Amino acid sequence: MFKLNILSYLKIIVYFAVIRKDRYFYIGEYIEIVNKMLLNLTGKKILVTGIANNRSIAWGIAQQLSKAGAELGITYLPDDKGRFESKVRELTKPLNPSLFLPLDVQNPAQIEEIFQNIKNNWGQIDGLVHCLAFAGRDELIGDYSATTSEGFDRALNISAYSLAPLCKAAKPLFSDGAGVVSLTYLGSERAIPNYNVMGVAKAALEASVRYLSAELGPEKQVRVNAISAGPIRTLASSAIGGILDMIHNVEEKAPLRRTVTQTEVGNTAAFLLSDLSSGISGQTIYVDAGYCINGM
Ligand code: NDP
Questions:
Q1: Domain carrying residue 5
Q2: What pLDDT is stored for residue 35 in this prediction?
Q3: Fewer CB within 10 Å of terminal CB in the chain, N or C?
Q4: 56 CA to middle of ligand 1, Å?
Q5: 34 and 142 housed in the same domain
Q6: Which CATH number fits the domain that encloses residue 75?
Q7: Beta carbons of 183 and 229 less than 8 angstroms apart
Q8: Domain match, 49 and 159 both
C-alpha cells in the first residue's frame, strides 16, 4: 500500500518529464519528490512497545510501519519463564527487527538500557510508539469509587506516567522531526461503564502528550501525538468488563457502523510518524469509525 513499485515510479517520472515540461529534474530529484508525496518511512528507525500477541494494536502498528519501510526495534514485557519473549520474538521475526529488548516500564534500569542500546546500534531514533497500559481486573468493573489507592497508582504509573521517562531517555537521541505516538481511548473524556481508572489514566496520558509536545517541539521539531482508537478485542481490552457491549455499541452507532482494526490504527500511526504529518503535534487523533462525534 505504501511502497511504490518501479512501474509507478516510472509513471510519475513520465508525468513530470512529458506532461509538465516546465522544469528539468534529475532522476534522484524525481524520486525525492515522489517519496515526499507518499507515506515512506524508509531509513527511519522506530521503537515499538506493547506487542503481546497477534491481536495487539502494537502488532498492527509494527506491521504497517515495516510495510512503509521502517527499521524496527521491538520490546516485550519480560516474565520469569521467558514465555512472552519467545512468543513476541516468533511473531515479529518476519519484520526482521534490528533491536529486540525487554521493557517493563516500571523498571528505570531497563529504560536506560534500551536507549543505551539504541545509542550504540542506531545512533539516533526517528520514532517511538507507546502502546501499553495496565489496570487490575478488579479496577475495570463496577464502581469507580471502589478504586484502590494501589490500583490507581499502578494504572496511572504504567499507562500514563511511563510515556515521560521514555521520552526523557529518547530526548538526546531524537532525530530532527522524529515522532512519538501513544494510544488512548474515548474513556478519557466520557464516562464509559467499567473503564473507570483507565479513563483517568488516559486523561493523564493525553495531557502528557500535550506537555511533551510543548517540550520536545522547539529544539528538534519532535512531534508527540495520541491515537484514540475505537474498541478492539485484545488481551488488555478483554480485562474490561463489558468490552463486547462496547464493541457492539460502536458497530450499531458509529457513522461507519463498525469498529476499527489494528491495521487501520497502524496506518494512522505510520502517517503520524512520517514526514506527511510534519505540521501535527500535541493532538489526539480519533481512529474510531467516527463514533466520538455522536451526541446520542
Ligand atoms: P495488548 O494487551 O495487546 O497490549 C498491551 C501491552 O501493554 C501488552 O503488550 C502488555 O504486555 C503491555 N504492558 C503492560 N504492562 C506493562 C509494563 N509494565 N511494561 C511494559 N509493557 C507493559 O492490548 P492493546 O493492544 O489493546 O493495548 C495497547 C494500547 O492501546 C493500550 O494503551 C490500550 O489502552 C490502548 N487502546 C486499546 C483499545 C482496545 O480496545 N483494545 C482502544 C483504545 C486504546 P503483556 O501483555 O505482556 O502483559
A1: 1-38
A2: 63
A3: C
A4: 7
A5: no
A6: 3.40.50.720
A7: yes
A8: yes
pLDDT of residue 1: 46
- Residues of the chain predicted below pLDDT 50: 1
Give me the phi and psi of 185, to 5 degrees please. -145, 155
- Grid cell locating 177: 522531526
What pLDDT, on a 0 to 100 scale, did the predictor assign at position 82?
Answer: 86
pLDDT of amino acid 56: 98
| pLDDT at position 26 | 65
Which residue's CA is minimally distant from atom 46 of ligand 1? Answer: 52
- DSSP element (H, E) containing 149: helix 149-156
State the Cα angle at 99 between 47 and 69, rounded to 5°: 60
User: Is the same domain home to 15 and 83?
Assistant: no
> What residue has cell string 455522536?
294
State the residue for C-alpha cell 512520517: 274
Same domain, 23 and 108: no
Beta strands across the sheet bearing 125-130: 99-102, 71-76, 45-48, 125-130, 174-184, 223-229, 284-287
